Every structure is written in C-alpha cells, then in structure tokens.
Amino acid sequence: MSDNKTVRFGILGCATIARKLARAISLAPNTTLSAIGSRSITKAETFAAANNLPATVRIYGSYDQVLEDADVDVVYIPLPASMHVRWVVAAAEKKKHVLVEKPAAVDVAELDRIVEACEVNGVQFMDGSMWLHHPRTGCMQELLSLSHSHSKSVGPIHFIHSSSTMPTTPEFLENNIRVKPDLDSLGALGDLGWYCIGAALWAKGYQLPTTVTALPDVTRNAAGIILSITASMQWDQPSQTIATIHCSFLSYTSMDLAVCGSNGSLHLKDFIIPYQETSASFDFTLGAKFVDLHIGWNVRPEEVHVANNLPQEALMVQELARLVSSIRDGGNRPATKWPEITRKTQLVVDAVKKSLELGCKPVAL
Amino acid sequence: MSDNKTVRFGILGCATIARKLARAISLAPNTTLSAIGSRSITKAETFAAANNLPATVRIYGSYDQVLEDADVDVVYIPLPASMHVRWVVAAAEKKKHVLVEKPAAVDVAELDRIVEACEVNGVQFMDGSMWLHHPRTGCMQELLSLSHSHSKSVGPIHFIHSSSTMPTTPEFLENNIRVKPDLDSLGALGDLGWYCIGAALWAKGYQLPTTVTALPDVTRNAAGIILSITASMQWDQPSQTIATIHCSFLSYTSMDLAVCGSNGSLHLKDFIIPYQETSASFDFTLGAKFVDLHIGWNVRPEEVHVANNLPQEALMVQELARLVSSIRDGGNRPATKWPEITRKTQLVVDAVKKSLELGCKPVAL
C-alpha cells in the first residue's frame, strides 16, 4: 500500500542485513519497499523471491537504476564501507535520503564528503545503529539525565564499559566483506566497535573524549584487518570519565554495556540486539551503599522492562521516514542530530586506529 | 566455647574490617576469638565493648602480646600494607598462622619475605580475599572448567572485565590509611584493584598473563597515591585472552565481573560483596547465537542462585581453621595454594604499577 504520505525505500545490494531491513520497512507504518537493486539482476530476483517481497517492488540489475527511480525517496545502503562514499554521494545528488550501514565510512575524510553531499542536496543522513531507536535506550537516557534531581539520576558518568564480540568461522575471517582491505578496511573495529564506541559516546551525551588509546592486544588476519581490539576513551572535562571498549570476531556472542556514575549504575548484556523482539530490559541501582560491616548492599538492582510496539529496526525506519516526510512534505531541513552522532563515532573509530598505528599512544581529539 | 579442636584467633589492630572478621570468627564452627591487640589498650577495650566480644577474649595493649599468647593459633592482620612484612614475619616466627588483609604486601619482594617466613616456620598463609570462599565462586568455576564437555563449559576464555569502584569522602582521599604513602602506598590499585586482578587470574585458572599494561587515565592524590586506574592483562598462550580492569575510589559502589569464553559467558555485579548475605547469584549463557535475521537470541541468560550456610568471610575463616587444624593436629604441611594465589595477584599489581612508571608501556611477566 502506497499513498501520498508513504515514504518509499530502495535498497542497494542484497547483503544479509538487507533482509532484516526489508522486513523492518514492511513493519513500519507509512513506509514501503519500492525497489531493490543489485549488480546482478538474478541476485536481486533471488533475494526478492527468498524474502517474499511484494510484486510491487521494482527489481533492478544495477544500483544506478534504484537512484534513477523517481518513486524512491530513501535508499538503504548496506554495501561495504569502501563503497559508501561513491554511492551515498550519488544517492544524495539524486535527492535520495540515505540510511547507511555502519561503519558509515572508511574514515572521517570520506564521511565528511558523504555528509556534505547530503547537506548540499538537502537530504537526510542516518547510519544503521538500530539500538539507538529502541525505547529502552530512551529509558536509560532518562536515568543518565542530569536534569533529574541527583537522587533519581546516575549522576556524572565516571566509567563505561562496552564490549561486542561474536564468533565467526575461519572462512569468514579470510573472506567476509567485513575483513577485506578493499571493502571494510576497519574490520571488527568498524563493525562491532562502532556500537561500543557509539554506546560510550551516547552515555556521555555525545561529548567527544579528550584522548583515545588503543591497547596492544590487537589481532589481525593475514591481510592486516583488525579481528579483535581493546581500547579506552578518556574524558578530562568537566571531570574524568573512562570508557573501555572491546570488540572481537574471535569470541562468543556478547554485547555488554555498563555505565557507572557518581550516584548509580546501569547494566545490560544485549544492548545492540535485545534478547527478544517485543521487549527489552536493563538493570540499575541508585544510591547503592554497603550495609554495616559491609556484609551486603542497601539495594539490589532493579530490572526495568521496556516493551516496544515495533522491532528496533522498524522504529529506526519509522524515525527516518518521519524525518523524510517532514522534509519532502513539510519543507523542513534535514535533522543534523544523526550525521553529528555518526561523525563523532567515526572520529573515535579513526582515533583508535591512529593510536594503534602510533604504537598505542594516546591520540587527542 | 573452646576445646581441643578449636582454632584460636588473635587480631592485630582495631581496623574497621576487624569487626567483620570478629563476627566471622564467632560464626564459623570450631573457631574462637581469643585475643585482640592494639597499640593502645584503651582502643582495644573500646573495640571489644563496641563489638560485644566475649569476656574470654584477652585484650592487649600491643601486637607483640598477641603473638606471645601461647593460646593463639592464628592471627588476623588487618594492618596497613607497609606493616605486613614486619608483623607477618614476627607472627610466623612465633609459629602463628596468618590471615592478612589485602594488599598482602607493598610489593612482591616484601611478599616473598612474608611467604618465606611462613614456609620456614611451617605456618599457613592466606590473604583476606573473602569472595574466593563463597560457594558461588565454586559454582562459576565449574562453568569455567574445561574438563566439562564443551557444550557445558564457557570454553577457553577470551575476554574478562572486572571493575571495583566505591565512593569516598574528600577526608578519606587525603587521610585514610589506604591512600597514605607510608601505609598503603598502592592506593586503590592495592585495595580494590586487588580484587579485579584476582578475579581475572581466577578466571584464567591462575595462569599469569604474558603482559600487563596500565592505561593513561590514572588519578592520584596530592601525595601521589593512586585513586583510580585502568589496566589490561594479556595472555598469549595457548590462545589470546584480554582482561580489562578498573578500580576507583572516586566513583560509585560497583563490583562487576564478566567472563566471556568461546562458548559462553558469565556475569555478576556483586562479586566481592554479594548483595545479600545468605545467597548470591550470577548469570550465564552457553551456546548463544542470534536467531534468523538477527532479531533476537536463541537463549536468554540463566540466573543461578547459590545459597551459603555461612557468610563468605566465615567460610574463609572456616577454611583457614581447617588448614590450621590439619597442621596443628594432623601434622600436615601448610597448603601452598593460598600463598601462590596471593603471589600471582601481587605480581600483577606490581606490573601495573611498573607499567604506569614506564609511561603505560606493556610489562612482561
């Protein structure tokens, strides 16, 4: 179903994650999948059939044809990072709004070309950090909000730990696009590390750290691509905050986030992909102290359950569609919030890489 | 009540934590508090009265008198770290078994003098890491055990994160023994960091790391004592494991431990002091994967509750008393397990300090 209010999506490429997004577009209100393009029309047709895409979806044998389609408002670009600058700029020049998979670019220089093209062409930019759109994230943000009275807030943040690891096969570690120098040269840092760095920045209200330091434990594949890395982020103002991040393609499925402030802490173990699709939870304590003799605590963690009416990726699509509508139909300017978040994340990704190149010296931002 | 089987404790000093141990000694079976000594007899008397110590407890105005007391088998030494070498060696020479608060010594050189004195004199040495004696710790160890079939074990460990932070007052940060160069020169690293490092070593079955690296975010008080520090431990054999640790006197009450292996993970947020005294819990997953489309997980964390018949500090006292009995009454040799654990912890503490002195360069062990 498509009417004047519908926001029409096109997808460039048939990446695995495109299946998740195609479903999200079908779930979100007032959005529709209008077109999908692949370099091979057979691949696009196979994708459409395998995912039961409606017959109304136009299937193209090139990315350009999706961008030429006047009935596409937004393109989702799950291509390898090295192709983002070319295809996002091309999309923006065709006045298509863009949703780009992470890492948004191979470095901030390319990202700046991307963001500038979006600005010049008046189109919305957003990266695919789905977890930011889950209502759980908003709930946690409330707890972190310093506008609350001190007793109801975690308080100024002192420490953040965020990790994202997943197991892969030997075949993945040599051949997956995420570990190919000419495709996703940032490896695990750009893929899983994007979330860890993003979570630390989110917890700090998107204040950039003062310095970023890689740890010496990096693991690379034969082509030199990062498979596993640990790093820290340090903020010096207004008071010191430390974040440790760890990401790896060589471990087990995990995605932990812990945030510790002056008056509280929050913890979750599924921050990127919630355990289940219809609700998610996190734990927090506020005002925790040890009881007399230090034989226990005065509080236990409270578990907060947050229901979501749509999966987080559909909420992301819905938010993007809302912005696109307000530009297309309301004459508004694109929201700067999303490219700003992306750029800060990319700056820190770049700084971790630079620290590594400098022998794990701190890199100032 | 004291009979031939009773193990008789003396305490040197009236530190706050001595209250907790006095209670633990009264709770543990077959142990009794026989004597307490302070440099001021008035202080010792006040402590005895405030804590309702039985009239049978002998109260001394010096530490030496406790060591001279023939009816004391074990002494608990919660004195500042700089005094450990003097008083543990003195106790060992009087054939007293020893329970020493952490940090066990100011450095491994002093610890070696301590451990040697205990060996030469045939007395048991143990440090006050209470959490190692909680049955929860044993339960978690089962999950980490590689002797299990792979599907029931966390598998070879890839990543460990451990943090211990607590809020303090400005007065504490200048005057507490734990931040005085002549008393506890290791500051937060020797105090809270002892647990974080100990937990990482525990998870790795007490294999020493290959290298230890401090991060540049250290905070010190005016006297140069560490108030907050972050570090990493790296094992290269048989495969890579990374641990990040963080400890701080400048934050909120937290004590997190996360262990991630090839096939599972476990998490707890109260590893040093359980939320409540009679049971404790931890979470784990085994074999976690994302479901199709990555819209959720195939498992959710299981929460394991472990009841304990005695508080963990009483279980520590009970274990020490068991060893003391077996030496005193059974003619056995002291167990080497406990001083070995202590020495490895101290080695890593020293390496973190050395890395810091070297400008955060990795220190090989």
What class would the helix/strand composition of chain A place it in? alpha/beta
The ordered string of helix (H) and strand (E) elements of chain A is EHEHEHEHEHEHEHHEEEEEEEEHHE
Radius of gyration of chain A: 21 Å
Percent of residues in beta strands of chain A:
25-35%
* Number of E strands of chain A: 16
Which quaternary structure do these chains form?
Answer: homodimer
Distance between the termini of chain A: 47 Å
Low-confidence stretches of chain A: none
Shape of chain A: globular
Most extensive interface, chain pair and sizes:
A-B, 63 and 63 residues
What does this structure look like?
The structure is a homodimer of 365-residue chains. The first copy, chain A, is an alpha/beta fold. Chain A contains ten helices and 16 strands. The first copy, chain A, has helices at residues 16-27, 41-50, 63-68, 84-93, 108-120, 135-144, 170-175, 187-203, 312-328, 337-357; strands at residues 7-12, 31-37, 58-60, 74-77, 97-100, 125-127, 157-167, 211-214, 219-220, 226-235, 241-248, 250-261, 264-268, 279-286, 302-307, 363-364. In chain A, strands 7, 8, 9, 10, 11, 12, 13, 14, 15 and 16 form a ten-stranded mixed sheet that branches. A six-stranded parallel sheet of chain A has the order 3-2-1-4-5-6, with helices on both faces. In chain A, helix 1 packs across helix 9 (312-328), helix 5 runs antiparallel to helix 10 (337-357) and helix 8 (187-203) packs across helix 10 (337-357). The model of chain A has no long low-confidence stretch (mean pLDDT 96). At the A-B interface, helix 1, strand 7, strand 10, strand 11 and strand 12 of A face helix 1, strand 7, strand 10, strand 11 and strand 12 of B.
